[in-house]
Amino acid sequence: MLTPTVLLAALALAGHRRVPDLGVHLGSLWESVLPWTALLVPAVLLAAAVRRAPAPACAALVLAAVWAALFAAPLTRGAGAAGTGTGLTVVTHNVGAANPDPGATARTLLAAHPDLIALQEVTDASLPDYQRALGPELPHHVRIGTVALWSRHPLTGERRLVIDPGWSRSLRAEVRTPGGTWAVYVVHLASVRVGASGFTTGHRDRNIAALGRALDEEPLRRVVLLGDLNTAAGDRALDPLTHRLSSAQDAAGSGLGFTWPTTFPLVRADHIMTRDVVATAAWTLPATTSDHRPAAATLTP
């Protein structure tokens, strides 16, 4: 049974878009864990060696080849010009509502010398700490609900972005960069859960659909979306965004860019996405006292 199982896994990996949801979002869940199928390869090779069975070993090599076709490129790509060059450096971070040390978190973000910092889960209690730490270097600031944006360059047109009438966890602002005015979206989408009823994604998926419609109505050509999207990079649920925007990590990142959870990141839940803006580097920053790691990118018009 080992060989057919491994070959089935290779087939499901290669054709992950055809894995059905079966009413419990199975396909979406599968696409959220795709990079981790690599762990099957050494396990199967070890089992094959113990059994002296060549067939499972060959099946494992097929799985390894399929995995490499999907994921080898970012693992072999250079780190790029992280935090350097003529572009703007942007950072996004879900700082955590229960963050015990907002000041230290802010200092970690400032070490990347960013031009824009987008934060999610900013509370009334923590806002003064972030403002004291970030304000001197990034003097332009807007906070709406639990999301906030600090900028080195002037902000205009700040408003709540209504993608979920019940929550205030997204904003839109215009940043007057040296290369022109960009629309910047800071978003924190609804969480998902895995339980007896399956992979519960309905609330988040409605947020994504509404965000896609907002992007269609965006009058500015250059757009940067920063935030915690509560979904892995390969999840088909992101299609309304990936059909409209490009991922900075996919375009210019080194590695898979996992951001959650902090202690042992398993998925890239925090994203930097762009339209008519080019990413020249993308990376993750050192861990803070949040349960997410920050993500950063250098962008040029």
Automatic annotation (TrEMBL):
Gene3D superfamilies given in the database record: Endonuclease/exonuclease/phosphatase
Name of the protein described by the UniProt record: Teicoplanin resistance protein VanJ
Species of provenance: Kitasatospora terrestris
Organism phylogeny: Bacteria, Bacillati, Actinomycetota, Actinomycetes, Kitasatosporales
Entry-linked InterPro entries: Endo/exonu/phosph_ase_sf, Endo/exonuclease/phosphatase
Keyword Ion transport: no
Domain Endonuclease/exonuclease/phosphatase: 91-292
Membrane-spanning intervals of the chain: 33-50, 57-75
Membrane recorded as keyword: yes
Keywords: Membrane, Transmembrane, Transmembrane helix
Highest taxon, organism lineage: Bacteria
Pfam families: Exo_endo_phos
